[in-house]
Design brief:
Layout: H1 3-14, E1 23-27, E2 41-46, E3 51-55, H2 61-67, H3 79-83, H4 85-88, H5 91-112, E4 133-137, H6 141-148, E5 153-157, E6 165-167, E7 170-173, E8 184-188, H7 197-202, E9 209-213, H8 222-226, E10 231-233, E11 235-237, H9 240-249, E12 257-259, E13 262-263, H10 270-275
Helix pairs in contact: 1-5
């Protein structure tokens, strides 16, 4: 079973004895994309106020969701049923399914009175050291210096062939096998949507630390922790109304959310959280 399918099944167990949230609204960034990192995600809002984020720059999802009309055709839908489209669907349905799974995670955490700790850096707490070999899945220039400036060797795995080659202080490769020699690996939550998760994790068995970061990394972490991920670094929205206004305007929304960092070794687990609600 895939991590996505296991995650949705775990959410179904957690909400088995609870009222099932429905979708209240879908909040979209402007289309076409304005080039901002803040306009790469949509937010699905449940009727209990929980928000779930999903990356919308894959498979033409942003344009398709705008074309689907107000609410993307999902307002009033059972959120758990929509979440099943993450492992089972494709394209826009998969995007919406992931957002629903993320929103249900936030709903569960809120009901259980649980919130992940605040992040202390932007690289998943990897703490690169001189001589260590760090892998990065996807080329994210703002994060490169945070690794190389501390004396670690960096290898970046990319899908875009035009970026491949040696750079000053790091290397960009198209070959996932080069992750096998890494001591620590940093990836973004986009791997949960582009079908690269299993392939990447298979190459990271040697890594002592494996951090997944990004606004979408707030989805229920149990299945990912079981597969070797050691930390999930997401965006914890603290002002939903302000967040949605900024998102719709294509403006920075960072002041309406805090960066979270949830380590595997301190996370109580979905069953323990669900037990708080019984």
């Amino acid at each position: 079973m895939t991590a996505a399918a296991e995650t949705v099944d775990a959410l179904a167990r957690a909400f088995a004895a609870l009222p099932r949230p429905r979708v209240r609204a879908l909040h979209l960034p402007p289309s076409p994309w304005n080039g901002s990192k803040d306009a790469e995600f949509a937010a699905l809002e449940l009727d209990d106020g929980a928000l779930g984020l999903s990356y919308v720059l894959l498979d033409g999802a942003l344009a398709a969701l705008h074309g689907a009309g107000r609410g993307g055709g999902v307002v009033g839908v059972d959120a758990l049923e929509l979440a099943r489209a993450w492992p089972q669907g494709e394209g826009v349905r998969r995007t919406l399914g992931f957002a629903a799974a993320h929103a249900l995670t936030r709903s569960l955490f809120d009901r259980a009175g649980y919130a992940p700790p605040e992040a202390t850096d932007s690289i998943g707490g990897l703490d690169p050291q001189p001589g260590e070999h760090v892998g990065m899945v996807g080329f994210f220039p703002p994060l490169v210096k945070q690794v190389t400036a501390r004396g670690a060797r960096l290898t970046v795995l990319e899908l875009r062939a035009e970026l491949a080659g040696d750079r000053a202080g790091f290397r960009i490769t198209l070959d996932a096998a080069e992750l096998e020699g890494c001591d620590k690996v940093l990836m973004t939550s986009t791997v949960l949507l582009n079908d690269t998760l299993d392939a990447v994790l298979a190459r990271c068995a040697r890594a002592r630390a494996l951090a997944m970061i990004g606004p979408g990394a707030g989805v229920l972490p149990d299945a990912l922790f079981a597969r070797g991920v050691t930390l999930m670094g997401g965006a914890w929205v603290v002002d939903a109304a302000g967040f949605c206004r900024a998102l719709a305007a294509g403006e920075p929304w960072g002041r309406f959310a805090r960066k979270s960092a949830l380590p595997r070794d301190t996370y109580p687990g979905v069953d323990a959280l669900a037990a708080r609600l019984r």
